Amino acid sequence: MPSIAENLKTWNELYSWVGDGEEWSADFGGTEALWWFVIYPRIHRYLPACSVLEIAPGGGRWTQFLRTKCQSYLGVDLSARCVERCKARFASDTHMKFCVNDGMSLEVVPNDSIDFVFSFEAMVHVEKDVIEAYLTQLAKKLKPDGVGVIHHSNLGAYPGRLKVLEYQSRLPSAVRRIVTVGKVEYLLGLHTGWWATSMTSALFKKYCEQAGLKCISQEFINWARSRCLVGGISVFTKENSRWDVKSPRLENSQYMKNAGLNVRLARLYCD
User: N or C: which end of the chain has fewer CB within 10 A?
Assistant: First the structure.
């Protein structure tokens, strides 16, 4: 269960950010392929937007695409190192601003100012208290027709399997060298990857409702080698906005299988 302090130490001190996070796109054929073939088809109807808020931009992996889809952009990250990196990387873009927060607060964001909020492959590492805090604030930060897309953990939906992993960690060291975490995860169909174990898609929807937001769609996805749907992509808006029309859900166990196709497509259509 990664805490805010652990996230800060990892992303601000331990991780090198040499590749600006683009190294995590390899399984999908690179960042360009992952954006255009996977992410953009899921968010295209909400862009371009007048004002965009990105939570946890890291090294700017998605920021480089969002920058052309808005009139004003604000990136908020708990890592001062990431914020400074993005400021330097996008220094020529006068419509962009980056700020450091405490990993939970959106105080720097004016109320009723955001048309589109986005976070992908970042908030999978934050627990349910952080998600709840952000959604509570976003209910005030979004414009009346504002909308958001957040990629988060759904690991908490598998408490029994997580207990097996917890038991494995208490085995004698000699046994753990044979019965490794990787082997146990594979047998359980899980991918933990330092993802939040308390968070679920059901909780995301609940927190939206508590804040006066409407979760208008949820996609349950697998990740890496997992067979379980350990991740969620949730789309939300303000109640009675023009987007508040439906609430479907999709269980997509083929999400990672499609990554192989993305790799082949990238050879044809991406740099």
Answer: C
3-class secondary structure, 197: coil
Residue with tokens 């590492």: 125
- Please state the pTM of the whole predicted model: 0.95
Q: Which two tokens stand for residue 205?
A: 């929807």
At 160, which helix (H) or strand (E)?
helix 159-169
Q: Is 85 helix (H, G, I), strand (E, B) or coil?
A: helix
Residues 63 and 54 sit within 8 Å (Cβ to Cβ): yes
64 has a pLDDT exceeding 90: yes
Determine the Cα–Cα distance for residues 51 and 97; give it in Å rounded to an integer. Answer: 11
Q: 271 in a domain, yes or no?
A: no
Q: Name the nearest CA neighbour of 151 among 226, 236, 77.
A: 236
Domain that holds residue 26: 4-158+195-264
- Which amino acid makes up residue 15? Y
For 171, the token pair is 């085995």
Rounded to whole angstroms, how far apart are CA atoms 229 and 53? 27
pLDDT tens figures, 192-205: 999 999 999 999 99
